[in-house]
Structures are given as structure tokens and as C-alpha cells.
Design brief:
CATH architecture of the largest domain: 3-Layer(aba) Sandwich
Radius of gyration: 20 Å
CATH class of the largest domain: Alpha Beta
Strand content: 15-25%
Order of helices and strands: EHEHEHEHEHEEHHHEHHEEHHEHHH
Shape: globular
Bound molecules: fe (iii) ion
CATH superfamily of the largest domain: Periplasmic binding protein-like II
Helix content: 40-55%
Mean pLDDT: 94
Structural class: alpha/beta
Number of domains: 2
Low-confidence stretches: none
Number of strands: 11
Number of helices: 15
Largest sheet: 11 strands, mixed
Length: 340
Amino acid sequence: MRVSFGLFAAAALMTSVAGTTAAYAEEVNLYSYRQEKLIRPILDEFEKDTGIKVNVVFAKKGMLQRLKSEGMNSPADAILTTDISRLQAHKAAGVLQSVSSDKLNANIPSQYRDPEGVWYGLTVRSRVIFFAKDRVKAEELSTYEDLADPKWKGRICIRSSSNVYNQSLMASMIANLGAEAAEKWAAGIKANLARKPQGGDRDQIKAAAAGECDVAVGNTYYYGKMVNGKDEAQKAAAAKTAMFWPNQDGRGAHVNISGAAVTKASKNKEAAIKLIEFLSGEKAQKFYASSNYEYPVLAGVELDGTVASWGKPKFDVIGLDKVADSQVEAVKIFDRVGWR
Ligand code: FE
């Protein structure tokens, strides 16, 4: 069930805590934006391995507001969420705390964790280019920067600038190229749009397949879901399009993370750290990454078959903390160039 973090969610967690305290010596309470089916099986493993019970509130929105209003009375020990911008927003709001762990530092490459030890990346996704195979050749594509070239006028589909994935992509352009060049790029993309931004990432790929545009921008795992899902229209759209890895001769494709952090209010800090360590470890990484067609953060973990079929891309290794630092500027630039 995916709900907002309202009173209902808090009540659900309390009930679950009260109902299970007797069976476990230790517990950890988790607020999660990640879906239950992606993580419940690994949490079960963690409970079996450690004897620590994991109580989870799954929700779709309202986590930060909830944590802020609960303050130090929050029952949450840790959060799980996607996107560096959300992790950074929680850090900036002061609802998280810094932790140190040799295991986390060993398992997670430095670009995927906060230098101050507040947030830790657990899975990696990239934001890439998709193209209509009957109208575009892979050789015509190269970089994110190239999408701002007038040759793509009226040919690009990308979602709204209010979306955090686009904000992080924009922030990475600022962090890599500087604000001035990034603003020119954003204006170029805006000028090349095939239509007013609308829908999610999958809708952009579907629009490219339907001929509304020739290229689309989207996150890699959505393509995995389209290829392997039950939706025939999505499967057909995926078949008409192909994925292209941008900036392979340069800095590499923009990546983002899903991650975890310990809350400032945590009453079970050690257990929360153990849980995040477990999620970064061998046993959890394979399942966690492949369950959503993502990349593991831990080196050497086998990829999901579909993900492996996308080749061996070069990823941008810029620290995501630096990308996060450009988030505010990214939103201002979107505003200035009129990318709604
Ligand atoms: Fe998503």
C-alpha cells in the first residue's frame, strides 16, 4: 500500500511496533519511498540474519514534512528514498545524522555517499537518451550537450522541470560545465522540445515510439520495466526504441542513486547502521539492484540480465554531493529558460 505520511502512516507504524516488541530484542523503524516488493524480501533476510525486527512505513510522499513535524519524537530510525536531491533535502532540513561505518565506506564508492556520512547510496540508475530506431541512427547521438543543437529542433521529449530526476541532471550539467554553459544548454533543450513537458519517463519513450518526437530522455530502469512488464503497449514502444549511453567519450552518463540515511531522532542507531550495512552488502545488493533494473553500488555484484544487456557504460564519477550543491541553481535556471 502506498500512502502519504499522514496520521494513518504513523498509526500503522505504532501498531506494528507495539505488536512485535516481544519477539525481537532489537528493532529498527524505517520510513520508505521504495516500494515494499523491492525491499521486503531483503528485510526478511536481515531479520533472519540479525534478529533485528524491521518495521516499515511505505509511502509515496510527505516523508520530510512528517519527519520535521515529529522532530525528536519521530519513531523513524532510518529512511530509504530515491534521488540525491531528496536525500540532500532531508540532510539540509536537519532531520538526519552523520554516521561512520568502515563497512559502508568499503562497500559504497565515494561518489555515491555523503562526504559527511549522512546519506549512503545503495543502488545506481542512469538518466540516458532513447531514440526511435526508424528515424534516428545511434551514430547521430553523442552527448547531453548535443541535444541542445538546432538539428534536434522539435524532436525531443523530456518531462517537466519540476521532476527531481531532471533537476539532478541539470545540477550535474552545472557541476560539470559551470552555470553559464548549463543555462545555455537548458535553453537549447527548451527550444528543441517536440511538445510541452508532460507525463513520466515512460511516457517520453512511448511518445518517441509513437512518432511525437525522435529522442526521449529517461531513467534506465523504466526501460527495463517496459521491456519486461505485462503492459503490451509499453513492450511495443520499447521495441521501437533503443537506449543510447551519452558522453561515453567524455565524463560518462549522468547517474543518480537510491539511498539510505539514519534519522537524527533515531533511538536505535546501531541497528539502523547495521541495516544500511546489510543493504550495501553482497547478499542484498544483487536482489535490491535487479528487482528494479538498477545497478548495484557494490563492485563485483552480478547484474540483472536485462541490465547486463545494455552493455558496460561509463558513468560520470563526479561526487553526488557536488551535484546536490547545484540543485537550487538548477531550479532557477529551469525557471529562467522557461522549461516548465
Ligand atoms: Fe522513478
